[in-house]
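tokens incoming
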């Protein structure tokens, strides 16, 4: 499976630019949503999505997904979403424990996500639904249980994808006039 996720650049002045060799700059981040751009590569269900946050210094990626049952080209879009939520949460666990100087030997998460098919895919004519994300955190560390609870609590509050999962999100999809 070649080219499932690849970095194409970074965002500079709110616009995606070619990726620089690296940066040591500290970045001030204010999260704002920007529209993504998807291209259907194959009518059978393979899609390529251009995705990024519209914040200076943020990485800009292209992601390929495959919605067919056999998924022989790439993970499904929901598979990518599940991995992204887990990765965001684990990143916050690592960042906070490092910042608070709490030595974690190892940490891992197991998440349960449940989605229903919507519209024509589900045969219901209704939009798809998602249950709340259930996350189980496992930590190996020689620190107090209260300190571990603090790491988990702070990580949950600072992971913007977990924050998204706490509230009902209304998603609007529209055709990009450029891709017609």
């Amino acid at each position: 499976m070649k080219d499932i996720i690849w970095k194409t650049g970074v965002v500079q002045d709110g616009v995606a630019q070619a990726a620089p060799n690296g940066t040591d700059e500290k970045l001030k981040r204010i999260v704002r949503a920007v529209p993504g751009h998807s291209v259907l590569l194959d009518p059978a269900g393979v899609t390529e999505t251009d995705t990024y946050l519209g914040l200076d210094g943020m990485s800009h990626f292209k992601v390929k997904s495959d919605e067919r049952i056999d998924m022989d080209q790439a993970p499904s879009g929901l598979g990518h979403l599940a991995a992204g939520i887990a990765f965001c949460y684990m990143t916050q666990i690592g960042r906070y424990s490092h910042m608070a100087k709490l030595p974690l030997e190892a940490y891992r998460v197991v998440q349960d996500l449940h989605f229903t098919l919507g519209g024509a895919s589900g045969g219901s004519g209704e939009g798809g639904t998602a249950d709340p994300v259930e996350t189980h955190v496992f930590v190996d560390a020689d620190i107090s249980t209260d300190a571990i609870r603090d790491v988990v609590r702070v990580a949950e509050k600072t992971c913007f994808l977990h924050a998204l999962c706490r509230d009902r999100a209304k998603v609007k999809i529209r055709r990009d006039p450029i891709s017609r």
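note: The mean pLDDT is 76.
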